[in-house]
UniProtKB/TrEMBL annotation:
Molecular function terms from GO: ATP binding; cyclin-dependent protein serine/threonine kinase activity
SMART domains registered for this protein in UniProt: S_TKc
Source organism phylogeny: Eukaryota, Metazoa, Ecdysozoa, Arthropoda, Crustacea
Coiled-coil residues: none
Pfam families reported for this sequence: Pkinase
Source superkingdom: Eukaryota
InterPro entries: CDK (IPR050108), Kinase-like_dom_sf (IPR011009), Prot_kinase_dom (IPR000719)
Keyword NAD: no
Keyword presence, Ribonucleoprotein: no
Domain Protein kinase per the UniProt entry, residue ranges: 1-154
Record-level GO cellular component terms: cytoplasm; nucleus
Name under which the protein is recorded: Cyclin-dependent kinase 17
Record field: transmembrane: none
Keywords linked to the UniProt accession: ATP-binding, Kinase, Nucleotide-binding, Serine/threonine-protein kinase, Transferase
């Protein structure tokens, strides 16, 4: 579970008895669309870093109104990730060249796409900068929840965001309200509908 004042993710499929010490689990965890590439490629030793990848996927989905990596299978999921972020190399993911599962798939070499072109709203409030820190191939380099809360992306929420208790709503912060953003439209056929709810002071 990732814990911060306004977002909590829980997946009891990974639940274990607290009295049983272990660092090795199954790699069949986390809903496929939010599962990080290290787990998709067979890693069974992980910690909260796998949640931070999922937070990044959800962040993109909340901003753009659509999922980032909606794969149907593990191979499809990896293909979407690599096509979007670029096929990993030793410089972006040390050790990937010797990963047996990665080599078995024989993926094409992708340079990656611009997330900003796919979701222009990522340009606001340093969103793209924060998202890029969530979506790192090397798990140990992904930003933690505590560090993410100090990112400039959250400055507009004010300092009171850091004093919220676990069960308190973000909307208890002074001056924070949820309003419809009428400037953001998603076209579906001949119809355009407002899809995103934005927070403003």
């Amino acid at each position: 579970m990732s814990q911060c004042p306004f977002l909590q993710l829980a997946d009891f499929g990974l639940a274990r008895a607290k009295s049983v010490p272990t660092k090795t689990y199954s790699n069949e965890v986390v809903t496929l669309w939010y599962r990080p590439p290290d787990v998709l490629l067979g890693s069974t030793e992980y910690s909260t870093q796998i949640d931070m990848w999922g937070v990044g996927c959800i962040m993109y989905e909340m901003i753009s109104g659509r999922p980032l990596f909606p794969g149907a299978t593990v191979e499809d999921e990896l293909h979407l990730i690599f096509r979007t972020l670029g096929t990993p190399t030793e410089s972006t993911w040390p050790g990937i060249a010797t990963n047996e599962e990665f080599n078995q798939y024989n993926f094409n070499t992708y340079q990656g796409e611009s997330l900003l072109a796919r979701a222009p709203r990522l340009a606001h409030d340093s969103a793209l900068g924060l998202l890029s820190k969530f979506l790192l191939y090397e798990a140990k380099k992904r930003i933690s929840a505590a560090t993410a809360m100090k990112h400039p992306f959250f400055e507009s929420l004010g300092h009171s965001i850091h004093t919220l208790k676990d069960q308190e709503s973000i909307f208890s912060c002074p001056g924070l309200v949820l309003t419809r953003d009428h400037n953001y439209k998603v076209t579906n056929g001949s119809q355009a509908k407002n899809r995103r709810q934005s927070m403003h002071f």
